[in-house]
Amino acid sequence: MDENKQRPHRIREQLLLFTEASSLPDHLPQPDELRPAFDLLALFDECHNYIYANEGLLKERIFHEIVKLLVMKLYDEQINREGELQFGITASEYEALLRGEENPFERRLSRLYTAVHERYHDLIAETALRLKPLTLAYVVARLQRVDLTNTPGDVKGEAFQSFVYRYQRGDRGEFFTPYPVVRLAVEMIAPKPDEKVIDPACGSGGFLIQTISFLRNSFPQTDITAYIRENVRGVEFNPDIALAATVRLAFEGGTGTEILCANSLSEIDELDGTFDVVLTNPPFGSKGRIEDRRILKEYILARRWYQDADGCWKPSRVVRAGQSPEVLFIEKSLRLLRPGGRMAIVLPDGLLQNISSTYLRFWIRSQARILAVVSIPQEAFIPYG
């Protein structure tokens, strides 16, 4: 059957879940009509629940669709500072949607998404939104009056951190560092306002967000927006997670270019030696070793090592068949630092204790001065909820 003929029936099925026509405005929102939000996580949950009830998507897919809409909302606020905003739906548009009629809402949101896709094409692969029109209308209506740009940073940070953790922790090896561990690392390193900071395995941006918070509290005269845009960088291989980190940095005042979607082990050599601080929790090898010969041959820690007659460890010319990612990330992270730079990195205990890793400890001591080793209880990394 022609899908257009089925559409009114589907709309009637969703009608009971969304009866907001009377509360929708008769015009698109103006920038001065937006208000900061203090219950963002509740809004995220409402949108998630509605999408789940009406789209039948997996939670990771729902997460991605909501993040795309948040990027559209932020982009709209930044681009349209005067006049009508594009991220919105009016009462008449919603009523036309219920009748299955053509309406400006769908065309307008499609144009807005196209603009966002062109700007963030490295992070957003899809060329169109996947949500059905009524579902899209619901989410837009819930968010259109919110001023994301001027909502307090701590409110946005806490809400988005909880949102990301809830819907993106999973079985693919993405681990979100517990907040107390992140805070401890940042406070030990104590970044300064003139220092460049990078996380080469940034996930959703936890270390970067905490760095921003530390600077805001420790150096209140700092221009945080300028600091983020000039000094903060993150790299994340997974496009979904990279997009989440992009949104978090944009919430704080970033431009959306602070996060690179790339493989830190092979694609960011131009950044080597340009940072004062590295803060990171690299992926651990339990999910698989790095076996790409093009990557392995570039790392001295991917070679086989031996002890000479004096008991010193030296690398051979033989490249291993594979190496744990966290080992390669140690070398990469040190490469990113300028002379005198500082690093805090989360590592498995075995690298600092096992006999098989003796060569690694020898190499680290030859490259850096170790100021502290902090043992974290294993329970700290057990997911909750």
Major sheet details = 5 strands, parallel
From the alpha-carbon coordinates, what is the Rg to the nearest angstrom? 24 Å
- Continuous helix count: 15
Q: Stretches where pLDDT falls below 50 for ≥5 residues?
A: 1-6
| SS class | alpha/beta
DSSP strand count:
7
Tell me the helix content.
40-55%
Describe the structure.
By secondary structure, the chain is α/β, with parallel strands linked by helices. The chain contains 15 helices and seven strands. The strands form two sheets. A five-stranded parallel β-sheet has the order 3-2-1-4-7. It has a two-stranded antiparallel ribbon with strand order 5-6. Helix 2 (40-55) runs antiparallel to helix 6 (133-143), helix 3 (59-79) runs antiparallel to helix 7 and helix 3 (59-79) packs parallel to helix 11 (239-252).
Question: What would you say about this model in short?
Answer:
Helix content is 46%, strand content 10%. The protein has helices at residues 3-15, 40-55, 59-79, 91-98, 104-119, 133-143, 153-168, 179-189, 206-218, 224-231, 239-252, 293-296, 325-336, 350-353, 358-367, and strands at residues 197-199, 232-236, 259-261, 275-280, 303-307, 313-319, 337-345.
